Amino acid sequence: MNQQHKISRLNLTTLLFPLALVLFEFAVYIGNDMAQPAMLLVVQEFGVDTSWVPLSMTAYLLGGALLPWLTGPLSDRFGRRPVLLGGVIWFTASCLATYLVSDIHSYMLLRVLQGFGLCFINAVGYAAIQEAYAETTAVRVTALMANVALIAPLAGPLAGAALVTLAPWRTGFLLIAVCSLLALIGLWWKMPETRQPSPEVKLTPRALWQGYSRLLRHGRFVRAALCIPLLAMPLMAWIALSPVLLVEDMGLSALQYGLWQIPVFAGLIGGNLLLALVAERWPLGRSVLVGMWPLLAGLVLMLGSVVFASNRHVYLALGMSLMALGEGLSFAVLYRFALTASIQAKGIVSAGMSMLSMAGYALGIELFRWAYLVAGLPGFAVMALLFAAAFVRLARPQVKLAMAERSDPDLLPQGA
Q1: What PROSITE patterns does the record point to (predicted)?
Q2: The pLDDT of residue 412
C-alpha cells in the first residue's frame, strides 16, 4: 500500500482486520494446545500404544515448518489476500477432515496437513499487517495481537482436557474449525489487499533459491532477524523446562507450578500493553533500549535462584517475569526493524524471518536442554545469561541504526 493509504488511527473499524487475523492465529495455536489432551483417547480408539501421543505435536509442528519458504513468495506473486484466505480455508477443511480418519497413520498425516496453517500467519498475515498500517501503528497492533495469541497456550490445554470429558475427541476439532471459519468471514470482509499481484515475481526453484540466497547474504537483515530468537529464547526455554525445574527439582505441586506461570505471562502481557501505549510517544526503538533494563534485572534475580537455597522458585519466576516484560517491550519493534532491513518483497522477507526464528528456537531449546542436563538450574541460568548478553550485544547497534534512519528518512532503505 502507498504510504498515504496506510492506516494510522485505531478504532473499531480499523481493528477488525487484525482481530480476524488474530482469531485465525488463535485457532491455529489451539489446534495444537487443545488437541494434545485428547491424544490418550485417540490412541485408545485407534488401538495403538501411548508412544504415539507426543508424535501428534511433532507432526503438527512439522507441517508448520514445511511451507513458510513458499507461502511468503506466493503472496508476493498473487497478493496477500487470496493466499491468506486460501490458507484459512485449508486449515478449516483439514480440521473438519478429522471426522474422516479411521487409523493412527491417517490421523498423523492429517496433523501435518493441519500444521500448514502455521505457515500463513507470520509469512503472510503479519506481513500484511506491517504493510496495511503506518509504522508506529503497526507496532501497536502487533503488540496488542500478541496478547490475544498468548491466551492459546493458557486456555487450550484446560479447554481440551475439559472437552474430552464431555464430548467425543473429534468435537474439539469441530470447535477449532468453527473458530477458523469465523476468522475467514472476518478476513473476507475486512482484509485489505496490501500487495497487488506481481507477474514478475517468479516461483521457480531457481528464482526462489536466488531470492533466499540474496536475503541470507544481507548481513543487516540476518543480524536484525536473529535478535528475535535471541530475545525470546529464555522464555521459550522456561515454557519447555519449567515443569522439571519447579515440580521435580524444587518440589512444587502442580497447582503451585501453574500459579507461578501467572507472573511470567503477566510480565509479557504487561510489556506488550506498555509498548502499545508508548509506541506513538517514543521514537521507535526506544522501548527496546528501555526493555534491556528489566531483561538484565531479571537475570540478576534468576541468578539469585542459584545462589540462595531457600525460595529459589520465587527468584526464578520473578526473574523470568522481568525478562518477559523486556521481551514484550521489544518484540514487535524488532519484528518491524527486521522486516524493513531488506528492500526485497515483504513476503519473502517475512518467510525468511520465520525460518531463521524457527531454526534459532530449535537450536536454542537444545542448548538449554543440554545445559540443564549437564549442570541443572545453574546451567539453565548461565544459558539464559549468555542468550541475553548476545541479544544486547547484537540488538543495541541495530536499534540505534534504525532509530537514526527514522530520524532522517532519507537514510531509510528504499521501500522500508
Answers
A1: MFS, SUGAR_TRANSPORT_1
A2: 58
Domains of the chain plus CATH, in order, are 12-203 (1.20.1250.20), 219-406 (1.20.1250.20)
C-alpha–C-alpha distance, residues 379 and 385, integer Å: 10
Instruction: Tell me how long the chain is.
Output: 416
Output helix, strand, coil percentages for the chain, rounded to the nearest 5: 85, 0, 15
Instruction: Using alpha carbons only, give the angle 269, 271, 272 rounded to the nearest 5 degrees.
Output: 65
**Cα 75 to Cα 84: distance, rounded to the nearest angstrom:** 8
Question: What is the rounded CA–CA span in Å between residue 39 and residue 41?
Answer: 5
Q: Which has the closest alpha carbon to 117: 220, 26, 247, 250?
A: 26
CB atoms within 10 A of CB 389: 13
Which DSSP category does 166 fall into?
T
d(CA 257, CA 245): 10
User: Cα(136)–Cα(381) distance, rounded to whole angstroms?
Assistant: 34
User: 3-state DSSP call for residue 279?
Assistant: coil
- Sequential DSSP letters for 187-224: HHHH----S---TTS--SHHHHHHHHHHHHT-HHHHHH
Confidence (pLDDT) at 209: 92
- The pLDDT, as a whole number, for residue 125 is 92
Please give the C-alpha separations between residue 135 and each of 155, 290, 332, in angstroms, as whole numbers: 31, 19, 11
Beta bridge partners of 7: 133
Q: Dihedral through CA 304, CA 308, CA 313, CA 318, nearest 10? A: -30
- 325 burial via Cβ count (<10 Å: 0-12, 13-18, 19+): buried
Contact 170, 39 (CB under 8 A): no
How confident is the model at residue 409, as a pLDDT?
60
> Angle at the Cα of 286 (from 353 to 361), degrees rounded to 5?
30
The pLDDT of residue 416: 53
Q: In the block, which residue shows the cell 522458585?
A: 313
Task: Please tell me the distance from the alpha carbon of residue 271 to that of residue 131, in angstroms, as a whole number.
Answer: 24
